[in-house]
Amino acid sequence: MNQEYWEARYQSADMPWEKGAASPGLVDFLAAHPELPRGTICVPGCGTGHDVREFAKAGFETFGFDIAPGGIRLAREKTRAAGLTATFQPADFLRDQPPQKFDWLFEHTLFCAIQPDERDEYARAVLRWLKPGGNFLAVNYFDCGPDGPPWPTTRVEQLERFSPHFDLLADWTPRSYPNREGRERMFWWRRKAV
Ligand SMILES: C[S@@+](CC[C@H](N)C(=O)[O-])C[C@H]1O[C@@H](n2cnc3c(N)ncnc32)[C@H](O)[C@@H]1O
Predict the structure, then answer these.
(1) Which of 34, 46, 130, 187 has most Cβ atoms within 10 angstroms of its Cβ?
(2) Residue 30 domain-assigned?
(3) Domain range spanning residue 119?
(4) What's the average model confidence in pLDDT over 167-186?
(5) Closest ligand 1 atom number to CA of residue 94
(6) How far apart (Å, rounded) are the C-alpha atoms in residues 2 and 62?
(7) Separation of 113 CA from ligand 1 center, angstroms?
């Protein structure tokens, strides 16, 4: 799906993924881990920025990126209205060079939104945007589709794609939005320090 496709979804307000709140799994993760070192966090495919603002509230230096300018505009407006600070920039996560490398990268409904044949590119992009030793936290959609987006993934696929470059610290079934209960899984990876 290209930039025109996603921008048209924002222009026509056709955004069923927009739940008006951060991922419940992320909210719980941040509440459970106040001890984690804060640093820079990149949220690719950030949409209107709920997850970015959740990291900002928790004290991270936050950056949201999205291929759709309409999403970035809404994210900036909502963040200003909330009195929070975050940087939002239009970017194609799969193809662009990052403006910097990040300590953390948070995935939430981008992996399932890209074409399944772009998943190799996605894995390469995570390595391009995240520092060695950095944390990769993901909320993956297991039970969706088949006529995406969204397209589902499995635990086996996640382990195959990311284990070569990451140590898996934990994975679990998170609390989810009401219509996704039991259909998501979170993965907390640490990138191997080369
Ligand atoms: C299903 S929406 C999820 C938005 C947000 N993560 C959320 O959960 O509310 C997928 C988002 O990814 C963005 N997107 C799709 N392909 C992208 C790419 N290659 N680079 C950056 N963003 C992309 C879309 O514009 C859209 O905002």
Answers:
(1) 46
(2) no
(3) 38-191
(4) 95
(5) 19
(6) 25
(7) 7
Q: State in Å: Cα 114 to ligand 1 middle.
A: 8
> Which amino acid appears at position 141 of this protein?
Y
Task: Tell me the helix, strand and coil percentages in the chain, rounded to 5.
Answer: 35, 25, 40
Q: Please tell me the pTM assigned to this model.
A: 0.97
Burial annotation 47-84 (CB, 10 A radius, 16+ → b, else e): bbbbbbbbbbebebbbbbbbbbebbbebbbebbeeeeb
Give the model confidence (pLDDT) of 68-81 as tens digits. 999 999 999 999 99
Residue 29 belongs to some domain of the structure: no
Ligand 1 pocket by C-beta < 6 Å: which residues? 6, 17-18, 44-47, 65-68, 71, 92-94, 108-110, 113-114
CATH number of the domain where residue 155 is located: 3.40.50.150
